Amino acid sequence: FQHMPIIAYLISKRQSVNMTDVNGQTPLMLSAHKVIGPEPTGFLLKFNPSLNVVDKIHQNTPLHWAVAAGNVNAVDKLLEAGSSLDIQNVKGETPLDMALQNKNQLIIHMLKTEAKMRTNQKFRLWRWLQKCELFLLLMLSVITMWAVGYILDFNSDSWLLKGCLLVTLFFLTSLFPRFLVGYKNLIYLPTAFLLSSIFWIFMTWFILFFPDLAGAPFYFSFIFSIVAFLYFFYKTWATDPGFTKASEEEKKVNIITLAETGCLDFRTFCTSCLIRKPLRSLHCHVCNSCVARYDQHCLWTGRCIGFG
Predict the structure, then answer these.
(1) Which UniProt keywords apply (predicted)?
(2) Contact status, residue 70 vs residue 99, Cβ threshold 8 Å
(3) Residue-wise pLDDT tens digits, 246-276
């Protein structure tokens, strides 16, 4: 970890991230093989290194080296970056072949899951489902809330039956997001439940209470409350909370300036965003950005609370 600012400084000074040693190994290969953990592999990936280059002796890619070392975090980072699963080394082994030989069950599962996901990307229906993930998540929340209410109001005195139905519902609703919704959109599940609860509040009021209202003031006050909530929710969701942004050239200038003034350390430099940390800022790992005057990441709005 202590060498990551040095890496940033050298790359900012025009050192190639793909330079090799006498064995033809790049910094990414050495990091994936020698350093167990997500860093500095994840840090090097931010500088767009070559993912599929091979060394001179073993013809291994960085993913091969990560699998050989059993470096689960590095394998995860490299798969997320798009490393090839099909390149063979000098022995004719793919990364999956090496994992099977080493009997590392977690890495085997990760490689097979990634291969299956990349195969699914070829199907038009799967690509359409990925585009509609947020809508599907919202519909799942709406249907789940309706089903819970229906089961609890079911015309039966048997709480055992209702309990079994609720457990079955919970099992089915937990399976659906796992197979059809990616991890990046799964974080919006609390937001989807919030919006679906507002939907059912409105529907319950409109169906059960609206016909018996004596006057228009009740109607307009409720409608105004719902519209105001949706408006302010949208403003909260769409407004920039204080994300710190910088161009590639600005990042390099900041890194060089911090290094030459002796301030290139974790107190002033964010190794995820490659920028100088603003005052009272923290890096949000959900939004993957530094937020000025960071307070928290709100699960219900799916956004950070900060300067904005």
Answers:
(1) Acyltransferase, ANK repeat, Cytoplasmic vesicle, Golgi apparatus, Membrane, Repeat, Transferase, Transmembrane, Transmembrane helix
(2) no
(3) 888 888 888 888 888 888 777 888 888 888 8
Q: What is the topology classification, in CATH, of domain 4-120?
A: 1.25.40
Mean pLDDT calculated for residue range 212-241: 83
Measured at the alpha carbon of residue 307, what is the angle toward residues 301 and 308, in degrees to the nearest 5?
55
When pLDDT is averaged across residues 111-116 and rounded to a whole number, the result is: 93
**Per the residue annotation, which of 287, 290, 298, 304 is the catalytic one?**
298
Domain spans of the chain, in order of start: 4-120, 125-235, 248-305
Amino acid (one-letter) located at 81:
A
pLDDT at position 216: 67
Beta strands 296-298 and 303-305, pairing class: antiparallel
**Neighbouring C-beta atoms of residue 308, cutoff 10 Å:** 14
The pLDDT value given to residue 26: 96
Give the separation between CA 80 and CA 114, rounded to whole angstroms: 9
Token duo for residue 96:
């999956």
For residue 255, the model assigns a pLDDT of: 86
Q: Compute the distance between CA of residue 281 and CA of residue 268 in angstroms, rounded to an integer.
A: 10
State the angle between helix axes of 105-120 and 95-102 in degrees (0 to 180), rounded to the nearest 10: 150
Whether residue 263 lies in the annotated active site? no
Amino acid symbol at 270? C
